[in-house]
Amino acid sequence: MKLMFASDIHGSAYxxxxxxxxxxxxxxxxxxxxxxxxxxxxxxxxxxxxxxxxVIKLLNSIKHQIIAIRGNCDSEVDEMVLEFPITADYNxxxxxxxxxxxxxxxxxxxxxIPSSLIEGDIFIFGHIHVPILKQQxxxxxxxxxxxxxxxxxxxxxxxxxxxxxxxVKTFDGKxxxxxxxx
Length: 182
Known about the structure:
The chain is α/β, with parallel strands linked by helices.
């Protein structure tokens, strides 16, 4: 199973379109959205082409291929317009030989790893807008960075998990960072 991860779209129609273009080109089975989909948030600038209504239409167009969790900028009213659930604080995705836990990062993160994860499992989160690929206490800690508002001079990015390889990619499809999962 090939998974694509995108975090922190923050209502940008421009970057939501880019996410869907890459999703199609990557031919991933599911798009895992790590939260902060529609609202830019009070601490962020307005993103490029801020238009939550367009983002709603774009994401709803592939609703059967989306797995989503709630970010700190997402609310119950967002779920009223999106045609897929987004109010879960985390999702567990069983993989062949491990489990993957996806969360936004404001509740669980690399400083607060869920105790239910064991060696070889994967924890992926967004929220900080910075890509992370590391192993900590036997658990793989991954962050695809931000599609819309990257920080610390990182590029706009997304993640791909295919077999036992995780790659953070830029929107031209180039690998920015990668890690092999053993």
